[in-house]
Amino acid sequence: MKIGFIGLGSQGGGMAEMIKREGHELRVWARRPEVLTPYLAMGAKAACSPAELAASVDILCLCVVSDDDVREVVFDKSLLKSMTPGSILVIHSTVNPQTCIDIAKIAGPLGISVLDAPVSGSGEAALEKRLLVMVGGDKEVIERARPVFASYGNPIYCLGSLGSGQKAKLVNNLLCIANMELGQAALKFSEDLGMAREETRQMLLAGSGQSFALNSIDRLVTPDSAAHVSMLFSKDINLAMDMAQQDGINVNSLESMSIRTLQWLKRLEQQSNNKN
Q: How far is C-alpha 176 from the geometric centre of its chain's CA atoms?
């Protein structure tokens, strides 16, 4: 299959590399041409614009950051208008489910299918084929795209109608962010008891209190990375709260814990600023 990819960041870059490694014909586009260099060295083909890329592939994957980025590429860059009937647009970005639905309403009459398939994990996880892939959309279309998902993902969960993947990703992320507050509170409690923080964290990771969030504290989330992590977390919290508000769902407890995580990240960021 001819696969197009836009969004060659730390996560998307690994996904695109695995698509090529699995034998698919990879075509790529990026705002900055120098980003394409390693993929061209692997044998991928570069497109001059999103529209040119869209016209030449069977499946087009988007892994850009935000709703605005998705809408800009899809509409302002004429991507959707350029895709051929029968092709599939896969939105890997974490965005509002309604964004995917709005795009599908326009894509459908053009003969183009849309799937939302946000992923959880790092670029390293993609290279090891262990990204969690959460997919929403038509089952037949999902099966057509499954070989692409399997290039970088395992497990792959088919969760229902279009938008279901985004809902699952936001629930997952909100829980992870809230768990960071619990993990941070537990480590602070251990320090107040006179225990060594890192030894306690390692012990908890071996016990029933273990979690990905606890594993990330102090290891992946550092003063130098706090600003970037805070930006991503803020986006996901706002998306989750918007989704809850639209459906009239009360998630006050998760929201309050998530906000306290942002406050902790802000303190970490200040440590980095003071150091510099």
A: 14
Residues 6 or more apart whose CB falls under 8 angstroms from that of 148 comprise 1, 3, 19, 24, 59, 61, 90
Q: What is the number of alpha carbons within 13 Å of residue 260 lying toward its C-beta?
A: 14
| Whole-number Å distance between alpha carbons of 180 and 212 | 9
Task: Give 60's strand partners.
Answer: 4, 89
Mean pLDDT, 10 residues at a time, over the chain (276 residues)?
Answer: 96 97 97 94 96 97 96 92 97 96 97 97 94 98 98 97 97 94 95 96 96 92 91 92 90 90 91 78
Task: Report the amino acid identity of residue 137.
Answer: G
Q: Three-state DSSP class for 29?
A: strand
Cβ neighbours around 4 below 10 Å, total: 31
Strand partners, 134: 157
CATH 1.10.1040.10 placement within the chain:
166-275
CB-CB contact of 158 with 181 (8 Å): no
Architecture of domain 166-275: Orthogonal Bundle (1.10)
How much is the pTM? Answer: 0.93
Q: What pLDDT score was predicted for residue 118? A: 97
Q: CATH 3.40.50.720: which residues of the chain?
A: 2-161
From 176, 144, 141, 142, select the one nearest 157 (Cα to Cα).
142
pLDDT for the residue 246: 87
Radius of gyration of the chain (CA): 20
pLDDT of residue 274: 80
